[in-house]
Amino acid sequence: MSGSDGAFGGCAIGLRCKECGHRTGLVAAYVCEFCFGPLEVEYDRERLKATVSRERISQGPLNLWRYRDLLPCAPDDPASGLSTGLTPLVRAPRLAAALGLRNVWVKNETANPTHSFKDRVVSVALQAAQQLGFSTVACASTGNLANAVAAHASALGLESYVFVPSNLEEQKIVATAVFDTTLLAVAGTYDDVNRLCGELAADRPWAFVNVNVRPYYSEGSKTLAYEVAEQLGWTLPDRCIVPIASGSLYTKIHTGYRDLIELGLCDGAVPILNGAQADGCSPVATAWREGRDFVSPVYPDTIAKSLAIGNPADGVFALDAARATGGSVTSVTDKEIIAGIQLLAETTGVFTETAGGVTTAVLRRLADAGEIGIDERVVLYITGDGLKTLDAIAPHVAAIQIDADVASFEAATIGDHVPAEFVTAVA
Amino acid sequence: MPVTVKIPSPLRTLTEGAATVACEPGTVGDLIDQLEETYPGFRDRVCQDGELRRFVNVFVSGEDVRFGDGIATVTTDGQEVTILPAVAGG
What we know:
The complex is a heterodimer. By secondary structure, chain A is of the alpha/beta class. Helices cover 36% and strands 16% of the residues of chain A. Chain A has a 6-stranded mixed β-sheet with strand order 4-5-13-10-11-12, sandwiched between helices. In chain A, strands 8-7-6-9 form a 4-stranded parallel β-sheet. In chain A, strands 2-1-3 form a 3-stranded antiparallel β-sheet. The longest helix of chain A has 15 residues, at 248-262. Chain A starts with 11 loop residues before the first strand and ends with a strand. Chain B contains 2 helices and 7 strands, in the order ββααβββββ. In chain B, the strands form 2 sheets. A 5-stranded mixed β-sheet of chain B has the order 2-1-7-5-6, with helices on one face. A two-stranded antiparallel sheet of chain B has the order 3-4. Chain B is globular. Classes of the chains: A alpha/beta, B alpha+beta. The A-B interface holds A 1, 19, 30-38, 140, 190-192, 194-195, 197-199, 201-203, 208, 210-211, 214, 245-249, 294, 296-297, 299, 309, 311-314, 316 and B 6, 8-10, 13, 19, 45-46, 53-57, 59, 62, 64, 66-67, 82, 84-90.
């Protein structure tokens, strides 16, 4: 389905195939008409160099539209819709100390409007969709994207259709359905949902954010590199730990850091990028471990449902980014994921969903293996909120049950150990 | 009963706009041969060096053939085969 050319302006000049270089205009298309390779937004690099500066960005709006020159589109009013981005970059000295490191920061994406990084990609995708003339938006989602599409569509007055696997966490279902979207719970895995949306996108005049407007959508993730650099005073971290589901976030963070250097906004080298997956869905980590340059699909089975993509669209590009930055792709067990959620919570006060547990567990693995220099500046990307995956952590935490009197309190809290009869698991 | 092959929109310029094409049952490779015969140029668009292009997904009754025997995956009477670009989602 191709919409009209939306008179984009700015520095974006068209779409280009990453595989064969074939070019097309700024239309609603996501694959090369010839080789089926992915299309990517192409920019006028000279114009970008002449336009972008630290000063221009710092004077911009207090959300992701401050990087509008580096995005394919932007609203006339940057305060319109849900304000996304400029999430805190939290210094994490206690987490660093627990890992034997000195300089760790948490990029806290739970602070976005719908509590995950997906607000970034959706902000850009919905702006592009409107400029391309669409009034209905849709997506295939593992949950966080569903929340974001439904919420941003309501904010902008667009109709929306959201497709999710039916086994999704209740919190993500409820936090999507509340926005008066049409929510379709599909009997199948995310990959089944994705196939269905691929078929539907061919024949319906809708903007599927991660199908036919995916080239615009994925550009939103670059702001996660721009923002971290700006928050570090226009310096680059040495290393970033990033979760991998489709591989889009990981590859676009790579692009973002490369942009900063190429455009003269930062000095230094692109950070080492370590990708993080769960053992129960680790097609990219497996390809990395086996030294392959292709990714074989898997059937996901993990508590990290937001990363449960068995056939990752950008898997091969994630492998490229890992190689190019001297990074790696690692997978961790569900047990390590729970421990990762608890470690982050106990040392930083940030409560992450299971995907952030994966990321934190990979950081711990790398630190324990001595792969991280003690003085390295490390950024941990925490992409979603723990309130979205309560079921995963509930069996591992407890509350102390007491009567409303002092004697009961003292009986329950005497000494180091709470007597067992007072403790009730939360779930 | 034939096998129904669902054609993705980028390939419909080759199939004279047809969204589905009926083929005789056989392996996925056999189906592509039949499509090549009717619509010259079809094979090059989905295959490279005798294998499916890396950004082409083929599903037989909803199952990704990369879980099966790839291009040698057998199709039977009445099954639906879907060709889709791989780069979506996430």
